[in-house]
Specification:
It comes from Oceanites oceanicus (Wilson's storm petrel). The protein is mainly beta. About 10% of the residues lie in helices and about 30% in strands. It has a five-stranded antiparallel β-sheet.
């Protein structure tokens, strides 16, 4: 990258406008703070800075300029979607992506069966195939 140019932290997130996630499962964690930009929210989520959980998404309230960091995303059990004009939802692409890039070492998606419906082999297993 060029000198003085910084990578936009939002690049790692999928944006869905006017959507908020509501946790039905009370064990899921959320932390909020006033921040001026979505870039600041994204940077903290990516680094998990000041969070006691792995940040998988954040919702930004455009009205109050409040960031809501989430330990879950739209694919997590115990979560429902809510249409809300004040919010934009940003989900880490690594957690909502249902495809494997490269060798799949960083894959964090939910797919665990092949295209033909066969259960995937666990990463820590050498049966039925060696890696």
């Amino acid at each position: 990258e060029g000198k003085g140019k910084r990578r936009n932290p939002l690049h790692d997130f999928k944006k869905t406008g006017e959507l908020m996630l509501i946790k039905v499962n009370k064990t899921l964690e959320v932390k909020t703070k006033l921040l001026n930009t979505t870039e600041q929210c994204a940077k903290r989520c990516s680094r998990n800075k000041g969070l006691s959980f792995t940040c998988k998404a954040f919702a930004y309230d455009r009205v109050t300029k409040r960031c809501h960091w989430l330990s879950f995303n739209s694919l997590t059990n115990g979560v429902r979607k809510k249409q809300d004009h004040a919010f934009d939802l940003y989900e880490k692409k690594d957690y909502v992506r249902n495809c494997i890039i490269g060798k799949g070492a960083d894959y964090k998606g939910m797919i665990s069966v092949t295209k033909s419906g066969i259960q995937c082999q666990a990463w820590n297993s050498m049966i039925p195939h060696e890696h």
